[in-house]
């Protein structure tokens, strides 16, 4: 059972994991370096625990102590009870859900190891918006994608905003980073995947014609908002594919495009 510790000093060093949560650049550097991430809200905290992440501590306002009582009873990590005002002074924002947990990261798997036993994967290049990362992971989990590979410059899936937008789906889909981009696309191809680059280019094959759901192993490549996949990534693909558009719309937000494409790639629909 965890100890419940009332804290009334925002500078208490025991709250260090929660300081400056709105400072994106600081947290992007600090959290991976210190091996932690922040789970926000009851559902996300529970999903992180269910996924096997070890809890370092919890920061709760008084009314959330009873809600999280079963977790408090099961986890030996300390629980810091604070007022809403103090929580805001520590974190830098009003903690609407009243419950935060600092969780210990797990070592990322090697990309080649992650590919073993998978059939439908996502490969992201330079997707550096945390909201988009969270949305893509949520769709990947919901639509049956097996794993995610990230280029070195993709945003952190375990950053608080990504975790929140995904509603904890980042814990459900395993991921790894490709350190040598785009050369490491060869690792994906050698594992038997056909690399499908999603692009609005007119010469790309419409997804329904490409019939990715019939492939034995398919890797869908997604690029950043606006610029899309780089020239090097497009050259590394086996085929370019696109979502047909109507009413003069030339592209979708990468999160929306990902959801449409995941359905086409992962769902075992009969070929027309």
Automatic annotation (TrEMBL):
SUPFAM superfamilies, alphabetized: alpha/beta knot, L30e-like
Pfam families per UniProt: SpoU_methylase (PF00588)
Listed GO biological process terms: methylation
InterPro entries for this protein: Alpha/beta_knot_MTases (IPR029028), Ribosomal_eL30-like_sf (IPR029064), rRNA_Methyltransferase (IPR051259), SpoU_MeTrfase (IPR001537), tRNA_m1G_MTases_N (IPR029026)
Protein name (record): rRNA methyltransferase
Coiled coil: none
Key words of the record: Methyltransferase, Transferase
An example molecular function term from Gene Ontology annotations: methyltransferase activity
Protein's UniProt keywords contain Signal: no
Domain of life: Bacteria
Domain called tRNA/rRNA methyltransferase SpoU type: residue spans: 121-263
The UniProt record lists the keyword Methyltransferase: yes
């Amino acid at each position: 059972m965890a100890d419940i510790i009332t804290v009334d000093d925002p500078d208490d060093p025991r709250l260090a994991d929660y300081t400056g949560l709105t400072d994106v650049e600081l947290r992007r550097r600090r959290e991976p370096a210190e091996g932690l991430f922040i789970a926000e809200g009851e559902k996300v905290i529970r999903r992180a625990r269910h996924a096997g992440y070890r809890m370092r501590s919890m920061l709760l306002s008084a009314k959330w102590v009873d809600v999280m009582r079963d977790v408090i009873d099961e986890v030996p990590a300390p629980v810091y009870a604070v007022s809403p005002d103090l929580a805001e002074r520590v974190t830098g924002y009003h903690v609407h859900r009243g419950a935060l947990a600092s969780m210990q990261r797990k070592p990322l798997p090697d990309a080649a190891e992650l590919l073993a036993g998978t059939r439908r994967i996502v490969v992201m290049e330079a997707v550096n918006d945390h909201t988009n990362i969270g949305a893509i992971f949520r769709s990947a989990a919901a639509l049956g994608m097996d794993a995610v590979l990230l280029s070195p410059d993709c945003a952190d899936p375990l950053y608080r905003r990504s975790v929140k937008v995904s509603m904890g789906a980042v814990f459900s889909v395993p991921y790894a980073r490709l350190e040598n981009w785009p050369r490491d696309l060869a690792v994906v191809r050698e594992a038997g995947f056909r690399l499908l680059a999603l692009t609005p280019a007119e010469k790309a094959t419409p997804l329904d014609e490409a019939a990715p759901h019939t492939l034995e192993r398919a890797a869908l490549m997604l690029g950043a908002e606006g610029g899309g996949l780089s020239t090097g990534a497009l050259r590394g693909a086996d085929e370019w594919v696109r979502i047909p558009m109507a009413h003069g719309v030339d592209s979708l937000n990468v999160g929306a495009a990902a959801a449409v494409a995941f359905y086409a790639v992962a769902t075992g629909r009969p070929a027309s």
